[in-house]
Amino acid sequence: MKVLVGKDADIKEGRLKGVVVDGRKFVVGRYLGQLFAMDGKCSHAGFDLIYGTVRDGTVICPAHGAAFDINDGRKVAHAGAKDLRVYIVSVEGDDVYMEI
């Protein structure tokens, strides 16, 4: 299912935007100009990743430092965390969409 997540100009470099679809949380962000989307809750403690940071190609959970690669959702830090799912992001005109 293709979901509108916002305007391209509103997704700022190094920032995360929260998206809720049918009660599920996701985050969309931009790193080095690349848009990405992934599950919005940390797999370690369930903390909302919207409060996390984007650094070195990862999203870092502020609760305990679990980090997830923006390209494949792979857990790169914190033994208690599991990989997250990533989603295809596309831009049509000024609009950003993700496939869930």
- Please give the CATH architecture: 3-layer Sandwich
Q: Report Rg.
A: 12 Å
Cα end-to-end separation: 5 Å
Helix content: under 10%
- Count of domains: 1
pLDDT < 50 stretches? none
Overall pLDDT confidence = 97
CATH fold group = Rieske Iron-sulfur Protein
CATH class: Mainly Beta
Order of strands across the main sheet:
2-3-4-9
Structure described in brief:
This protein is mainly beta and 100 residues long.
Descriptive overview:
The protein is an all-beta fold and about 100 residues long. It has a single domain (about 1-100), classed as Rieske [2Fe-2S] iron-sulphur domain (Rieske Iron-sulfur Protein). Helices cover about 0% and strands about 50% of the residues. It has no helices and eleven strands. It has strands at about 1-5, 15-20, 25-30, 35-40, 55, 60, 65-70, 75, 85, 90, 95-100. The protein has a four-stranded antiparallel β-sheet with strand order 2-3-4-9, with no helix packed on it. Strand 2 and strand 3 form a beta hairpin. The protein is globular. The model has no long low-confidence stretch (mean pLDDT about 95).
